[in-house]
Amino acid sequence: MSQNTIRLTMAQAVAKFLTMQKTVIDGETVPIFGGVFAIFGHGNVAGIGEALHGVKETLPTYRAQNEQAMAHSAIAYAKASFRRRFMACTTSIGPGALNMVTAAALAHVNRLPVLLLPGDVFANRLPDPVLQQAEDFGDGTVTVNDCFKPVSRYFDRITRPEQIIPALRRAMAVLTDPAECGPVTLSLCQDVQAEAYDYPESFFAEKVWHIRRPMPDADEFAEAAAALLQAKKPVIIAGGGVLYSEASQALRNFAERHGVPVMETQAGKSSLPHDHPLNMGSVGVTGSSASNALAEEADVVLAVGSRLQDFTTGSWALFKNDNLKIIGLNTQPFDAHKHHALPLVADARVGLDALNQALTGWQAEPAWTDKARAGKDEWLIAADQATASTNAELPSDAQVIGAVQRARESATLVCASGGLPGELHKLWKAGGPGSYHMEYGFSTMGYEIAGGLGVKLARPNDDVVVMVGDGSYMMMNSEIVSSIMLGAKLTIVLLDNAGFGCINRLQMATGGANFNNLLKDTHHVTLPGIDFAAHAASMGAITRKASSIAELETALQETESADRTTVIVIDTDPLITTDAGGHWWDVAVPEVSDRPQVNAAREAYVKALKAQRAG
Ligand SMILES: Cc1ncc(C[n+]2csc(CCOP(=O)(O)OP(=O)(O)O)c2C)c(N)n1
Ligand SMILES: [Mg+2]
Hints:
The protein is of the alpha/beta class. Helix 1 (10-19) packs parallel to helix 2, helix 16 packs across helix 17 (420-427) and helix 16 (397-407) runs parallel beside helix 23 (549-558).
C-alpha cells in the first residue's frame, strides 16, 4: 500500500499533530490544546522548541518560570475547562523534567488531563553520560523520567521517530476518556526529537474529539434504582464528576423532584448554587453541620463522580446508619466500587437523568427533606457569624473570606492548601459551576497562583481571585510574573499568619508541642518579617497591604478594575478556625510517648477510631 507521506522530524510531527486535534465547545470547533507551556533547555530546545516555533500561530507557546508551576497552570486550565480542553508542557531533561513529577501526581490524583513532554537522554547513547543524565549502574534502560511512571495514566518513551504515531493516538484516547483521564507522559529522547521520518499524511488529518457519556449497565442500574426506591433518608454527594460531566442541571432536577438533599465535596462544590434550598453545602471533615447531620443518618448515599477520599467520608466514620447503602455513580469502576458500593458505572448526567425517570413517584420521606431545610437555615446563621466583619487586629481566615465574598461576589475562587481549603469549603458561597476551584485531591502547596493563571487562561472573562497562605506563597509565587506577561489578571489575597498555621493546629490537636510550623517556633537566629507586598511588587504586581477587614474590602473593590495582577496582603490569626460543622479526621497519634499531651491525644484517638467503618 502506498501512503502519501510528509518528511518531518519527530518533534515537528508532535507539534503538527497537536494543532490538528479539535473539539467542539458551544457549537464551535476549537483546538483541543489551549497551548503549550515550555521551559527550554538541552533535551528540548533544538527539537521540540524549534518545532513549536513553526506552529506558534495556531498553537501558542507560553514561557513559564518553573516547570512544576507551569504544569499546575496547565492542569488548572483543564479543570476549569471541565476536562473539555487541555494543555501540553515541555521541559528539558533531568531537573526540568523531574520538576513536573509532583504536578503529574496532582493531575493523577485529581483525574485531570495534561500532556507532559519531558525531554529524555539520547536514545543512541553515544554521548553518554550527557549533562543531567543520572546513570543507573545496573539497568541501561532506566532514566530519571521513569519517575513519571507511577503518576502517569499512560507513559511512553519515544526512542524511534515512528513510535510517536501510536503513542500520540494513545495519548489522545487517554486524555479524552472520562474514566481513564489523567496525565500522559511522552518522554522524548533528545536525538529522536531531531530525527526525520516519512510520516503518513493521514496522521495529521483534523480530528474532532468529543467526551463520551457511558450509559449504565441494565443490571447495575436496576439494583441502584431498587436501593433508592427503598430509601427513606437518601443523600447525594456531589463530586468533581458532576462538574466534569456538566451535570448540574440533571443533579438539580433529580434533587428537586425527589426531595433529596445534596452535599458537595471540595471538587464538587459549585455543582449547585450555594443558595439552592437542597444544597446542604460541604460534607465531611470540613463539612457543614447540615450535611454531616444528614450523612450520619442517611440510609442511601448516592455518590456522584466522587473519589470518596477521607475528607469526604470523615475517614469512613461519618456514616453511622447500620443499613447504609452507597451507590457509586462514576465513569470509573475503580471509584464506583469503593467501600462496598453498588456500582453504577456511567456518566453522571446520563446516570442521574436515567435514575430520575426510573424513580417517578418516589420521594424521600418529607420529614427528611424538612430536616435538611431546617439544618441548612441553622448552618447559615453559624456561617454568617464566622464570616462577619470585625475590627480585630488579626482577623481569622473566615473573616477574610467574608470580606472577599462581599467585595467580589461573583469571583471564581482558586485555592489548594493550608487552612483556607477547609474554611472555604464550609464558608465560600459559590455561584455557577466551576466558580469554586479547589485542588484538594493532592492539596499541593504552590498550586494556587499557578493554578489561578490556568483558570484565567481557560475562563478569561472570570474575575479570578486566588486565596493563598504565606507558606504556600513562599513555596511558589513565580507565576505572578507569567500572569503579568500574559495579561492574565489575577487578584491574589495573601493571608500572612507567619507560618504553617493549619499544621501547627493539627500538631496541637494530636498532642504535639508547637514546633517547626509557625516561624516563631522554628530554629532561628532572626525572624524575617517578610514584606510580601514588596516581594510581589518586585515582580510587577500591583500591591496593597490591608491592615483591617475594612481596608481589605476597600482594596478589593478598588483593584477590581486594575489592569494587571494584584496582590493584597493581610495579617491573620494563626490559631482561629471555624468551630461550627466539621468532623473527625484520622491522623495517627503516637501510641507511646513521654509527653502527657500525646498520651491524652492518643486516648481520644483510640476512642474515635471505634466509629470508623472497616471494609
Ligand atoms: C508541597 C506541599 N508540602 C507540604 C504540604 C503539607 N502542608 C499542608 S498545609 C501546610 C502549611 C501551609 O501554610 P500556609 O500556606 O501559610 O497556610 P496556613 O496553614 O497558614 O493557613 C503544609 C506544610 C503540602 N500540602 N504541600
Ligand atoms: Mg500561613
